[in-house]
């Protein structure tokens, strides 16, 4: 009942069920501290979603996988996609996230290395780090723990995207966001089939 009551829908995407995390730090911290066996844990929220027989459940995790917000969903996943911007900061964060999954969670993670991918977001022709530079930096940081997972998709910088999102429009359908929508559709097919 709690899961069903928490479902939200966007007007532009009426068939997409969305559950949003609590919006205040106190509630977030409290939820993150719940043990996986707790009835209202993050893990049990995902089990509730499974019981609705969704074709796919996509969980957007915090950028650093060092809390129960990230660990519980990761332990239930069968695919992991690390989303990063083509920056040195995100290359290092990608290495950190990949190492966390393959080293610290190695005994309990169900996601094999061949089901781990990277998506580069906000790729701009004006940027100074392309995909090859990003992966070279990530692999240098990984050292013997590499190589970095392969690139699954790239999303270009689309200046209209923030305004579309601020208006509650789907970036998949909003005017001027076609350059974003095309790789998003391709990524969906690759992940879900």
Q: Trace the largest sheet across and list its strands.
A: 3-4-5
Classify the helix fraction into a percent range.
Answer: 40-55%
Count of DSSP-assigned helices: 8
Uncertain segments: none
Distance between the termini: 30 Å
Q: Which class best fits the helix and strand makeup?
A: alpha/beta
Approximate strand percentage: 5-15%
Shape: globular
Instruction: Characterize the largest beta sheet: strand count, sense, and whether it forms a barrel.
Output: 3 strands, parallel
Radius of gyration: 18 Å
The ordered string of helix (H) and strand (E) elements is HEEHHHEHEHEHH
Number of strands: 5
Please, what is the average pLDDT? 86
Question: What's the structural blueprint in terms of helices and strands?
Answer:
Blueprint lengths: L1 H5 L1 E3 L2 E6 L6 H9 L8 H10 L16 H9 L3 E5 L3 H17 L11 E8 L7 H12 L8 E6 L4 H6 L11 H15 L1
Parallel strand pairs: 3-4, 4-5
Antiparallel strand pairs: 1-2
Helix pairs in contact: 5-6
Write a structural description.
The chain is an alpha/beta fold. Helices cover 43% and strands 15% of the residues. The strands form 2 sheets. Strands 3-4-5 form a 3-stranded parallel beta sheet. Strands 1-2 form a two-stranded antiparallel ribbon. α6 links the parallel β4 (116-123) and β5. α5 packs across α6 (131-142). The model has no long low-confidence stretch (mean pLDDT 86).
Short structural summary:
The protein has 193 residues and is of the alpha/beta class. It has helices at residues 2-6, 25-33, 42-51, 68-76, 88-104, 131-142, 161-166, 178-192; strands at residues 8-10, 13-18, 80-84, 116-123, 151-156. It has 8 helices and 5 strands.
